[in-house]
Amino acid sequence: MSESTSVNTHAAKNGSKREMWSSRFTFILAATGSAVGLGNIWKFPYITGENGGGAFVLIYLMCIAVIGIPIMMAEVMLGRRGRQDPITTMKHLARESGHSRSWGLLGWMGVIAGFLILSYYSVIAGWALAYVPIMGLGTFNGMDAEGVNAVFAELVASPESLMIWHSLFIVMTMYVVARGVRGGLEKAVTYLMPLLFVLLIILIFYAMDTGYFQQGLAYLFNPDFSKITTEGILSAMGHAFFTLSLGMGAIMVYGSYLPKDTSIAQASIAVAFMDTLVALMAGMVIFPIVFANGLEPGAGPGLIFKTLPLAFGNMNYGTVFGTLFFVLLVFAAWTSSISLIEPAVTWCMKTFQLSRVKTAVLLGVFVWLMGLLTIFSFNIASDFTISSTISTQYGEFVILKDATIFDFLDYLTSNIMLPLGGLMIAIFAGWLMKKEFSREELKINSFWYSTWFFLIRFVAPVMVIIVFLNAMGVIAFMRHIFNA
Predict the structure, then answer these.
(1) What is the tens place of the pLDDT at every residue in 402-420?
(2) For a Cys staple, 429 with which of 74, 349, 369, 398, CB 3.0–4.6 Å?
(3) 175, 121, 168, 129: which is closest to 331 by C-alpha?
(4) What is the chain's Cα-based Rg?
């Protein structure tokens, strides 16, 4: 028996025992749930408005088409062909195509990245959880900006409070993961994703009643090409990559549960569409409320925890709809967090022969402990910072400046590990994997296969390298040198 046949036989045996999504639709819901997170609710609407509205949306959709969808198709394809955890999948697929098993390191990087991201993501998601009862009790009613800021400051300054909400969110996440693919992941997204859309629609109707709905739509959708800048294009490229949860093994694992007869291309396009739709609907909710209260739409993360609570606290029925908004945030964070830990769960189950429940509990404890570093970085360890610079003849290249532990973890995962993961997936799928294998998995006609193959070989890797260099601050430093 040849090595290639051996690998395929192994994958087939593994796949026969592996749980599967019940349909393409549930995979789309799960992958969309992984992609939709806190960033969709505030970051995409904000950068859209700041970079030309509809003009930026057009550029972003082009970036999704040439970066996001091709790499997502590649990652799903690798997952379905391997039918195992990302580490084992990459080892076997590399051997199948006659390459070194060292490609398992790509799987390792994804698993570790997801673990690290969840450790701090759960803390931020805990803020959203905390705001549900705070908002529901009418705490912000009639409160001024100073009072709203004080509520947020009090929350993050208390390690005990953050620990409680961080713990609750970890329990919520691990409860779903422990129940398995059909009983946990699939059931969760089957309810949570439709509810997320229902909440968005309810909140859009509420936004229509503010009197500023048309202004909000204009901010989001009116194309203003004069606002398109190099920074705006780089933002579109970066968000097109990061928004789909690529490069950290989550989509690869979800792909491993995908039935053989499901179209990877159609599913990937549907996920990209739904992810973008959620982000735009969130903008249709947020900006009319912001404009109705004369507030600043470019407040970054503070838009969620400072600006919007102030707005809801001074609007009719603000308590009800503000509470619904934070429930929406919790749902978005919850569906993402499930996917972040799933790659680590599948690897631990296979490697240590543990049940899914035991694995979920053990990993939940480790993630919870790791999350304490992020919690303490907001209060008792806030003075502990990390700075890193490189001195050159053109000046200092600042990598990190006064970064807290939270800032460092965010920088490490978002700016280094995820772009490198996405780049290596594109290189493996486009340059190392045998074309006969990718053709067999994708099952698309010659024209679309050739288009995908060209994008994954040449266009996507170059654009991800640009995203990586921009995230690292290299492009800004180079521009500084040339302008000096």
Answers:
(1) 999 999 999 999 999 999 9
(2) 74
(3) 129
(4) 22
Contacts 24+ apart (CB under 8 A), 20-26: 20/181, 20/257, 20/258, 20/259, 21/181, 21/186, 21/254, 21/257, 21/258, 21/259, 22/182, 22/186, 23/259, 24/258, 24/259, 24/262, 24/263, 24/266, 24/267, 26/186, 26/189, 26/190
What is the domain-level CATH number for residue 158?
1.10.4160.10
Q: Give the 3-state secondary structure of 118-163.
A: HHHHHHHHHHHHHHHHHHHCCCCCCCCHHHHHHHHHHHHHCHHHHH
Question: Is residue 287 a contact partner of residue 296, using CB atoms and an 8 Å limit?
Answer: no
Q: How far is CA 311 from the centre of its chain?
A: 27
Residue whose entry in the numeric block shows the structure tokens 């997801």? 114
Q: Are 212 and 291 in contact (CB under 8 A)?
A: yes
* Residue 396 DSSP code: E
Residue 313 DSSP code: T
Q: Among all chains, which residue has been given the structure tokens 């972003």?
A: 60
Q: Where are the alpha helices (DSSP H) in 317-355?
A: 318-352
Tokens 């059931």: give the residue. 187
Which DSSP category does 402 fall into?
E
On whether residue 132 sits in a domain, the answer given is: yes
pLDDT of residue 10: 44
Residue 17: per-residue pLDDT: 63
- Does 34 fall in a domain? yes
CA pair distance 455, 226, nearest whole angstrom: 29
Q: In the numeric block, which tokens belong to residue 52?
A: 């030309």
Number of domains in the chain: 1
Residue type, 41: I
Residue 398 lies in a domain: no
Quote the domain boundaries for residue 285: 3-384
CB 396 within 8 A of CB 441: no
Is residue 269 a part of any domain in this protein? Answer: yes
Q: If you ran DSSP here, which 8-state letter would residue 354 be given?
A: -
What tokens were used for 257? 């549960």
Question: Taking 70 as the threshold, does the pLDDT of residue 100 lie above it?
Answer: yes
**Helix or strand holding residue 242 (H, E):** helix 230-242
**pLDDT band for position 300 (50/70/90)?**
low
- Find all residues with CB under 8 Å of 245, minimum gap 6, and list them: 31, 34, 35, 37, 251, 336, 339
Which tokens is 46 given? Answer: 């904000």
Please answer whether residues 211 and 15 qualify as being in contact, where contact means their C-beta atoms are separated by less than 8 angstroms.
no
